[in-house]
Amino acid sequence: MAEFVILLGGCERISRRPYDAYLYIDNFMFGRHVEKQQILRFLLEHNTPGPPAVLPVIGGNGVGKKTLAACICDDERVRAHFSKVLQLNGDDLSRITDHERMSGRTLVIIELASYVDEHVWTKFYHSITNMDRESKVIILGRNSELEKFGTVKPISLNCLSLEEYSYLFKTLAFGSANPTDHPQLVAMVEEFVVLLGGSLISANVLADALRKNLSARFWLYRLNWARDTIRKNISRFGAHPHVLFRRGRPMHLIHETTH
């Protein structure tokens, strides 16, 4: 039993109530526990002979790919394991020719807004074959075709579940205030969640405004604004604003009057 306790002491602690971890642990990303552990295992344990291993992280617009990558880079074990972190985008790939920039054990994070030409990728990957054997590459992108550039099984990031998203929005909207002290506002939370359509960006922006004014009149004003905005976009473009944003299409935002 003593040996078992010592063994457990060397393992990373995971909250039994992961939702509350967002409130009480510094630099802790809400949700994504499984994905974070998968990436950490790839970075710290997956060492194979040959060129650097490549892990694609695929997910829609605004699901938290960059946030997850930033959280991983901030992990003490990752910072200790890699001598440098190099962040690139699609335009950088065709310009990488300086091997000295990548000397030592390096973590390369590539953010791809769109699909990258296979010839460009092949040329880039060839340029990093002389990197340290334990160097790693992570691709962040929306296009599932990027999976073919990986050397390991890709990780797919989906939107948060409705339960997770609802909890996150409620936590952000009330901040340090006790929701039970504001029953009228609690009643509006679920409709806000449905109207936002799972967008993390919209949840953070709207919750920041709501948190600064915990009056039922102000919350109802913002709720009506959200309803009108969604109705206008569905009428004009045939889709929810979040869907339009994810597809890179234009959307209509109703001008807010001073309230």
TrEMBL record:
The organism's place on the tree of life at top rank: Eukaryota
Name the record gives this protein: Uncharacterized protein
Protein source organism: Avena sativa (Oat)
